[in-house]
Amino acid sequence: MTFPGPDINWVAFTPPLVLLLTAALAVLFALYQESGRLTAQLSLLGLVVAALFNLHLFQVVRQTDAFTSFGLRYLADTPAIAFNFVILIGTVLAVLMSYHYLERADLDHPEYYPLILLSACGAMVMVAAGDLITLLLGLEIMSLAVYVLSAWRQGSRESEEAGMKYFLLGAFASAFLVYGIALLYGASGHFVYAEIAAVLRGDGFDQLLLATLGGMLVLAGLAFKAALAPFHQWAPDAYTGAPTPVTAFMSVVVKAAAIAALLRIFSSVFPDLSPLVGQVFAVLVALTLVLGNLAALFQRGVKRMLAYSAVAHAGYLGLAVLAAGTVGTRAAIWYLTAYTLMNVGAFAVLSLIADRNDRGDDLERFAGLGRMKPGLAAALTVFLLSLAGIPPLAGFTGKILVFQAALQAGYVALAIIGIVMSVVAVVYYFRVVAVMYFREPEYELPAISSWATSMAIVVTVAGTVLLGIFPGWWYGLLQAGRQLLAGM
Amino acid sequence: MVATEYYVALSSILFAIGAVGVLTRRSAIMVFLSVELMLNAANLALVAFARQWSGAGSITALSGQTAVFIILALAAAEVAVGLGILVSIFRYRASTDVDALAEIRL
Amino acid sequence: MTLTVILIPLITALFLFFSEAADPLVRRFLGLLGTVSTFLVALYLPGTPGMSSLWLPGVNVYFALSPDGASAVLVLVASLVMIPTALYASGRVERRTGSFLALLLIMQAGLNGIFLAKDLILFYLFWELTLIPSLMMLGIWGGTKRRQAVQKYLIYAVTGSFLMLVGMLALRPLSGAASYRLEDLLAVTPALPAGTQLWIFLLFTLAFAVKLPLWPLHSWLPDFHEQNHPSGVADVAGTLYKVGGWGFFAWALPLLPGAAAVVAPVLLVLAAFTAVYAAVIATSQTNLKRLLAYASLSHMGLVGVGLFGLHLTGLSGAIYLLAAQMVSTGGLFLLSGMLYERRKTFELSEYGGLSRSAPALAAVTLFVLFTSIGVPGLANFPGEFMSLLGAFHASPWLAALATLSVIAAGVYGVNLYQRLYQDRETQPVADLRELELAVLVPILAGILWLGLAPGPQLERIEVQTRIIAQTVQPGEEIPMVTLGGRP
Amino acid sequence: MTDLISLAAFAPLLALIGALVNGLFGRAFREPLPGVIASLSVGIGFLLSIIAFFALAAGEETRVSITLWPYLQAGSFELSLGFALDRLSLLMMLIITGVGFLIHVYSIGYMHGDEGFSRYFMGLNLFVAAMLLLVMADSFLLMFVGWEGVGICSYLLIGFWYREKLNADAARKAFIVNRIGDAGFLLAMFLTVTTFGTLDIQAVNEAAGALVFGSSVLGVIGLLYLLAATGKSAQLPLQVWLPDAMAGPTPVSALIHAATMVTAGVYLIARVAPLFAQTPAASAAVAWVGGLTALIAAFIAFSQTDIKKILAYSTISQLGFMFVAVGVGAYWVGIFHVFTHAFFKALLFLGAGSVIHALAGEQDVRRMGGLGKHMRVTGTTSLIATLAIAGVPLLSGFFSKDAILAHTATSELIADYGNLVLYAILLVTAAMTAFYMFRWYHRVFAGEERFPKKLRDSLHESPSVMTLPLVILAVCSVLAGYLGLPEFAFPNWIAHWLEPSVETPVSFLHLSTSLEWLLIGLSVVAAAVGLGLGYWVYERNRGRLVARLEESMLARLSRSGFGFDALYRAVFVEPAEGTASGLSSVDTDIVDRGLRAGASPVGLLARAAALLQSGYLRAYALAMLIGVLVFALIVSLSGVLS
């Protein structure tokens, strides 16, 4: 037996590495701190450094080629780097949102920020994963931190219920994932996507049933993380119960990582499985779109409405996943970028309106907001309209891209279901806008000022608008460089 | 030598028992233990497959076995986090009944 | 150059949003500055080169605008109508005037975009963009039942347009066009198989029929107008935004000629029915704004009649009517606002005999009413005539049916005038004020301009009409009409 | 020469300028000024028309085209607005501007002191402009502009005293009924375009001449133009608006509802004479519509008591005569009657106006009588007009009416459609005309004085600004007929003059001179019988017979205007109103609700979707497990099946 030496390309995973180190450093600081401010600042610094490394990585990839580490187990190609950017943006925004929020909500413990960093680090590993075990590792690193974060509000029944549900169901889903990995391994003898695909395509392969079964289970596990129906039911509850910044973080970063993993698998392993996988996934997407949007329609709580809407958006991302490998990957990344900005933005506005324990997000509370807080109302309007896919905001371009991807992949009926559900979505998003502008003020709102959250809102508004008007720039960058595993 | 199929069959039975446990037990601890059972069912399958693939090449067989170790470690980490949350809940509710965790709904 | 007619209103709107604290005259000045300069640019627009740059590379969406043919005509007329509209809004909207004007100007930018866009997705972008200000104007400044009206309007508009988006997005992958630009699509989409054309066309139809509007998808319209701000300004904007006919003309018909040939006869029936149905209903309305809403619905039916006859004359006429009714219907809504200011109600039973105390107002109202009901020599007539004539080529019976709306229009037109200005005199009212006079002068000028010399604008419209005529009936010689002079 | 002829093109412009000046600044002017401006603008137009008329007469050409500006023009689309000045249109222009000028002058006196003085003259001027446009147009489209234009002016002037609901109602009725005719005009144009590819009148006429005689499409076009004509000229079945239109000021009735606008239908048919000459069916329809209208209107005129309504029905009846003329193919005869009728009918109306003026607004002939003594000029001129319209020989009405009768009897065009029956009807109607016109004159100017005594002292002849036009018109009423003496024995100028404009292959039976004289004799007899009967009934019998017949069926039928209003109310107006309000509720209750009901399942589904989220962790786990099991099942099944 000969063991080849490990093929480690450190540059490839500098961004998650920076996050990991920052997290470790922050935990050390946390030992000597009461307040989380220092760890927050340190985290921001780490995130910026990670972003710089990511940028460097991007330049390298554009100029030379995508590169890998640990064989094909860790891939640093354009999609991975782009996803890293999305994750970094989401994390920075979540940190900014938390900065004053935690103090106000009396949740200010310094361990909070290292956990967020760890979770982001896990998400980056997941995004770059080129084999099933790396995927599992990343997924668990990310999830374990998020479980804790969603139960962060100690003593709050909602928050703890959210954490517990998320954790137990998450573990349950992981079991499916792991069993699926085992079956795929049993069928092919490999964990690395490229190698599995090679075996599946090889002559005399007779374990298609086993492999497909394994693929389905992997799909179920990832569908859980992406909150695709019927594996989505944890999401509305966890999103509602978790502290708002955590909800924002979960709804974008966790989703981004899960979608990234799905994209990789759909562009490498799944094409060689039974075509049933694609069809089953299409059904999941349809189900998600229908359930997410319909359930959101009559919600009185804005946070819960946004929670369901987050589920629905997993469905739109699913449309892009169906076209993975061709236009789908870019469409999904673009959509996630837009989604990150507008969704976090919406939660950020919400965090400035709700009470310190996240109560009081009733629709009535938004009555007359356009008069009382014109800036916040205008920002929320931008986010909601963008989420609804109204031009010329980022969400519109995202919608065009994902629907175009689905149509190009031939899923016409699915696209029509999706668009009909978008109509429902417009109704519930616009209802909030209508309440803000078309009604007179009814409640006295708490005067909350937070420069950090405001900054997050300004950044997200600017991003949502600019990305909507000039979509070509970011899409052009996504086209640069190479996409590994695509079209294999 | 016992054929791989038998191991896999056993593992799937264990997996099913675990799944049923998740659905039927009300105690969060028992639910969690059921999940652990499912994870270990997967480990069993992995080991069995690793043995099956041992003829195909050293790396192929070894990777299955190493995966088991990684999964074991992950399961342990899950226990740590899960129990932490559980303890925190228990401190305020004096119960680990999962059916009581149904205040966020509709 | 082309972009300026979109940028000027947008930039002006930006200033207006922050002018809430400023002097009312500043707002009026800004509103006039934006609309007048847009109009001036629009005057010089025809013949200038368009623009085209890649906007969204992944799906090859171009930011392509071009003021050719009918586009320039509609931009020009809409810009003309916007001047008095903005002017009147600056004097009549009491609350948050700056925001109102800003929304109005954003709508103008969107409308100009709709007319100028030469890329399907860009067209959609402007189409949808324009919806929001229109909703906000209704929701913030509307009447007591505005929220129901908003919801209805929103659901109708969005259901239609979203489904259309699927059709639009499917068009390129299915046809293999190089981009979503009109010229690229035109090169390949007419060759799509009949079935594909049909379902895409039907999706387009859904959106355009809501916005035309066409029976039975018009239900949002009466409520929309009834609930809008009583100045009538938002109604004018809403009238300009009835761009379903433009959608058919500029996109659906030329791109999907096969389906058009199949579906158009059905739509022709619906359009003819709409024209008569709405005109008949208008005769029984007792609320001024609802009456005007149904009257304008009837006009849009005639636009449809012209389009779906798929005949050169009718197609050009439909677009001309679309432009003309912007002025006439817009003028009527502004007049309704002036009447409301005097009586504080739209119920016709509260009016009567005003001609004595307000003779000038009466004269202008009658003039615009006559325009609206298609009196020859005034703006609506050429378009109405050509629309019906075009339809007559396709189906004499349906054209005859639609012509019945001319009679019903006469009924509601003179009924309305009688109930407002004739009979027993009610409480005297003030005659036209200076501001109102200034508001009405462009409308009257527009009516005469469009009514007396339609030739040059029709010539421009015909550039596009020919494209449709050629794709819908390739090879078939379109009978050319010599409407006068010696053949 | 052409330049001189083209001068006439300024006539409508002048009238338009007059209307604009009065419309914009009229209220600032003091009283006679608006009237003077208006009269001058029309008067100059009259002079221009005369110049053009003589220029045309002196020159070689019979038709001058003037292109104004391109109207609908794009590619090979082409429609220029243009005038065609030929003998027919110039004759019409003379009538319009000439009679129009007199009526304008008369109005200065009649409208004295009215608060809407300048508005009145604006409307009148606008009308003249539109009417000139109508007759000068070289295409159907421009003619339609004038056609609708005169309708609108008519609407404005009928409802001139708008504060009376009745007046406003009358105006509305006139407009709506005319719109029905206009719809016919539109459809006629559509069919014209699809058939001939052009709307140029002369081109259509030439092309129609080349089509198969009696072709059905020509028949349909003819019928559609007939529909248009019945609206404007108040013929069956659209005659109902004209009696009500008397609500307007009397000079308006004289100009619009007697002399000019209502003859537009006759003009239209004469204008497209070559087309109608090719289609006996449509021509017969025209003739029969005219004949029946003439008869029925004359019958109704028997019992009317409003001084103007009697004249209105008389106008309808006389227009019927004209329709018969153009229907039987005697186009110049139709125009000839338009020409003579313009004078005596305008005169009758102006006379009536003078009476109403003198009696401070009284219009009921039952409260008049014996006025001839007090108003000598009015009385005398009215008598001349009455005799003229009654068909007394040597007055203008006699010649034109006799020509109509003779041509009806000898028409070959509608020989298959009972032209002799029509002749009989007209002959009877001629007698009836003489009768009811005698009645009119007698009730107003002769017999006992039935008006309130207190009015007697203030009774006065109208000012000379009003009587002068009466005198001029009276002279014309006498002389106009000599332009069209019976052809067989005398020179006939008007037939000769109009020939190039209305030339058709239509021919008439050539009768022997004695037969021609016999026909003339019959006409004379008809007039004599009518007048004699009238004299007996109203002068000798003192109306006792009438009083006894008052309650008879026929009398009631006559008084109610043959029941048309009631019939239309029941058959058209009320059902239409019912349909309108019915559709209105259908629109809000069924169409709207229906669509909303269609969307309601979405709401149910939404609540169901929310209910799925039970909150129970184990339910969520179950859903996941079911999902996975379904996956597994699908995969295994596919494996088994494959």
Q: What percent strand of chain C? A: under 5%
Please count the helical segments of chain C. Answer: 20
Mean pLDDT across all amino acids of chain C = 89
Distance between the termini of chain C: 40 Å
pLDDT < 50 stretches of chain A: none
Summarize the structure.
The complex is a heterotetramer of chains A (488), B (106), C (487) and D (642). Chain A is mainly alpha-helical.
Task: Please provide a written account of the structure.
The complex is a heterotetramer of chains A (488), B (106), C (487) and D (642). Chain B is mostly helical and 106 residues long. Chain B has 3 helices and no strands. The longest helix of chain B is centred in the last third of the chain and has 36 residues, at 58-93. The radius of gyration of chain B is 18 Å and the shape is elongated. Chain C has one domain. Chain C has a two-stranded antiparallel ribbon. In chain C, a hairpin with a 4-residue loop joins strand 1 and strand 2. Chain D is mostly helical and 642 residues long. Chain D has a domain at 272-559. Chain D has helices at 2-6, 10-25, 32-58, 87-110, 117-136, 140-158, 165-196, 201-210, 216-232, 241-244, 250-259, 264-271, 273-277, 280-301, 307-328, 331-358, 376-390, 396-410, 419-445, 453-458, 464-479, 493-498, 513-540, 544-549, 553-559, 564-612, 617-641; strands spanning 63-74, 77-86. In chain D, a hairpin with a 2-residue loop joins strand 1 (63-74) and strand 2. In chain D, helix 6 (140-158) runs antiparallel to helix 7 and helix 12 (264-271) packs antiparallel against helix 16. The radius of gyration of chain D is 31 Å and the shape is globular. The chains are: A mainly alpha (488), B mainly alpha (106), C mainly alpha (487), D mainly alpha (642). Chains in contact: A-B, A-C, A-D, B-D, C-D. Chains A and C meet through helix 13, helix 16, helix 17 and helix 19 of A and strand 1, helix 5, helix 6 and helix 7 of C.
